[in-house]
């Protein structure tokens, strides 16, 4: 008995759905194994093997070497428990690197220049790309002004942090 086109489409959709569920389950197993590994438990390998044996479905098109590599990967993004600590209110801001200082200085000029050329298509991303292209074309002599400014801000930041850590009060919010 031949299957109709609709039945075939349902089966294909179901296969894709199951493959997605398998990938999600494997990802969750790797996350749990990574957290257990952080606590010194050697459960990582056993958990992945158990998940692979239980699911017994390949989501990588049948390539035998890829399954072993997937078991060793750990998510690179920060876990929720590893969030970056918030900056204290009286703690000074870290200085901007030379490129960011260049962008802050040149952004207004670049915006007005780009609006003159094409007023409708100016975006922040486009301005930043243009600034990055200009920065990469700049010579080291032209960049030196921003590097020196960064070094000075870095010295001021270090002094402000020393004052803060030694218990002194900080009147300003640090270099901007």
Shape: flat
Uncertain residue segments = 63-71
Q: Distance between termini?
A: 75 Å
- How much of the sequence lies in strands comes to under 5%
Order of helices and strands: HHHHHH
Number of domains: 2
Cα-atom radius of gyration: 27 Å
Count of helical regions: 6
Main sheet properties:
none
Overall helicity: 55-70%
Derived structural class: mainly alpha
- Mean pLDDT over the full residue set: 77
Number of strands: 0
Pfam families: HMG_box
DNA-binding region: 92-165
Biased composition (Basic residues): 77-87
Domain HMG box: 92-165
Keywords:
2 domains; 176 residues; 6 helices; mainly alpha
Structural write-up:
By secondary structure, the protein is an all-alpha fold. It has two domains: 78 residues; 68 residues, no CATH class. The chain contains six helices and no strands. The protein is flat and about 75 Å long. One of its GO terms (molecular function) is DNA binding. Pfam families: HMG_box.
What is the topology?
Blueprint: H1 5-38, H2 44-55, H3 64-72, H4 98-117, H5 124-137, H6 140-165
Short description:
This protein has 176 residues and is mainly α. The chain has two domains: 5-82; 98-165, no CATH class. It is built from six helices and no strands.
């Amino acid at each position: 008995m031949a299957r109709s086109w609709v039945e075939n489409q349902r089966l294909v959709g179901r296969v894709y759905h199951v493959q997605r569920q398998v990938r999600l389950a494997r990802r969750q197993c790797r996350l749990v194994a990574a957290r257990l590994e952080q606590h010194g438990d050697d459960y990582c390998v056993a958990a992945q093997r158990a998940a692979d044996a239980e699911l017994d479905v390949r989501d990588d098109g049948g390539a035998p070497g890829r399954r072993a590599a997937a078991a060793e990967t750990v998510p690179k993004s920060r876990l929720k428990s590893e969030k970056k600590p918030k900056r204290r209110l009286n703690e000074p801001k870290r200085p901007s690197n030379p490129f960011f200082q260049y962008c802050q200085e040149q952004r207004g000029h670049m915006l007005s220049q780009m609006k003159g050329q094409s007023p409708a298509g100016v975006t922040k991303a486009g301005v930043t790309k243009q600034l990055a292209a200009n920065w990469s074309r700049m010579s080291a002599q032209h960049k030196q002004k921003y590097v020196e400014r960064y070094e000075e801000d870095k010295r001021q930041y270090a002094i402000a942090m020393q004052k803060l850590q030694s218990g002194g009060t900080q009147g300003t919010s640090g270099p901007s």
